[in-house]
Amino acid sequence: MASQSVTPVEDAVRAKIIEAMHPTTLEIYNDSHMHAHHKAMEGSTSKETHFRMVITSDVFKSKMQPARHRMVYALLKDEMDRAGGIHALQLRTRTPEEEERQLAREREERGEPITEIEKS
User: Fold this and answer.
1) How far is C-alpha 68 from the geometric centre of its chain's CA atoms?
2) CA distance 24 to 31
3) Secondary structure of residue 113 in the 3-state scheme
4) 3-state secondary structure of 101
5) Which of 3, 72, 87, 91 has the smallest CB count inside 10 Å?
6) How far, in Å, are 9, 11, 19, 76, 120 from residue 15 at the CA level?
7) Among 4-8, 20-24, 33-37, 95-99, where is mean pLDDT lowest?
8) Is the pLDDT of residue 11 over 80?
């Protein structure tokens, strides 16, 4: 008999994002424990209500942040509508090019050498 996952919501979210968006980066953080004391969470037994995600994907090219976020919300509609499901979602959505520029800026801030390509 297969064991039941202790993170079914996170597992479903991860599977849907991978299948639909083919991300080059996908980071999912379950921050539910930091919000369990909030009034809106009274009576909730779910340990998967608040997530923070970083998604890097080509599907975000030529789209502004609100459109990118709507894409993710639409994809996770079932998980957000379900009782005890996702209550809050913090998103950082970017393209591979945006991610590379961010990483180059971070390397430069640390004083690490960057290439001419990274400067553009």
Assistant:
1) 11
2) 22
3) coil
4) helix
5) 3
6) 10, 6, 6, 11, 34
7) 33-37
8) yes
Q: How far is CA 90 from CA 14, 31, 32, 49, 95, in A?
A: 15, 10, 12, 11, 17
What's the rounded Cα separation, in Å, for the pair 102 and 96? 10
E strands along 1-120, which residues?
25-30, 50-56, 88-94
> Rounded to an integer, what is the distance from CA 48 to the centroid of its chain?
14
Evaluate the CA torsion angle 26, 67, 65, 46 in order and state its sign: negative
pLDDT digits (tens, 9 = 90+) for 60-88: 999 999 999 999 999 999 998 887 778 88
Q: How would residue 50 be classed by pLDDT, with cut points 50, 70 and 90?
A: confident
Angle between helices 65-75 and 8-21 in degrees, nearest 10: 120
Cβ contact 108:114 at 8 Å: yes
How many residues are listed for the chain in this entry?
120
Q: Token pair of 92, please?
A: 């950082």
